[in-house]
Amino acid sequence: MYDITAQVGHACTVSSVSSTTAPKRADARKNIAAILDAATTCLAVDPEASLNDIAAAAGVGRVTLYGHFENRAGLVAQVVDRAMAASDAELESVDLSGDAHEALGRLLEASWHVTHRYGGLVIAAQAALPDRDLREAHDRPVQRVLRLLRRGRREGSVRSDMPLGWQVTTIQGVIHAASGAVHRGELSAERAPGLVRTTVLAALSPPPDHL
């Protein structure tokens, strides 16, 4: 997966596209990959990054960028599609077997890492994409969490006196809040996953008198 935290601080990472004698089609593929990588990096750091910023970071001109992407919304949509596919593959690899409470803890930590890696890309997507597209992009991760919450309810490790939708909203809110706190320097990236896990599991666990 493209690791934003390893590549950027607070500025877009500029990557160069070397000129070769390879056929145009190969050059186009390289340019597209460079643009998508640069857009992922720039938007994760600054959700309002312009096409000029992204083109410069990719090492291509605006004409080249517009030759592959009609507008900013189209570029953001492709970046989001690629990021969601990579994120979903990473979350799919999390071991969700065994006790639902422990499995949820593992999924929470993995979800925080994915969310933090892409940073401002979520905000950029909200500004550029229709609500329907955003809902579809989040459908698989949400369904994964819902299945685990339902299993936890059956096992008695997840409280059942709250709507499932609210529990999902709580999870998303805590993860995004932790990512924001790290970006603002209020919390270390090393401590954040454990705090997300502890906070959410405490909120979703049945009260002692219900055990």
Relevant terms:
mainly alpha, Tetracycline Repressor, domain 2, disordered N terminus, 2 domains, 211 residues
Helix content: 55-70%
Order of helices and strands: HHHHHHHHHH
Q: How large a portion of the residues is in β-strands, by DSSP E?
A: under 5%
Nearest-integer average pLDDT:
82
Distance between the termini: 40 Å
Fourth-level CATH superfamily of the largest domain: Tetracycline Repressor, domain 2
Largest sheet: none
> Which residues form runs of ≥5 with pLDDT under 50?
1-11, 13-22
Number of domains: 2
What's the β-strand tally? 0
Calculate Rg over CA atoms. Answer: 20 Å
Question: Structural class from helices and strands?
Answer: mainly alpha
Task: Examine the secondary-structure arrangement and name the CATH architecture of the largest domain.
Answer: Orthogonal Bundle
Query: What's the CATH C level of the largest domain?
Result: Mainly Alpha
User: Can you tell me the overall shape?
Assistant: elongated
Figure out the total of helices. 10
Report the CATH topology name of the largest domain.
Answer: Tetracycline Repressor, domain 2
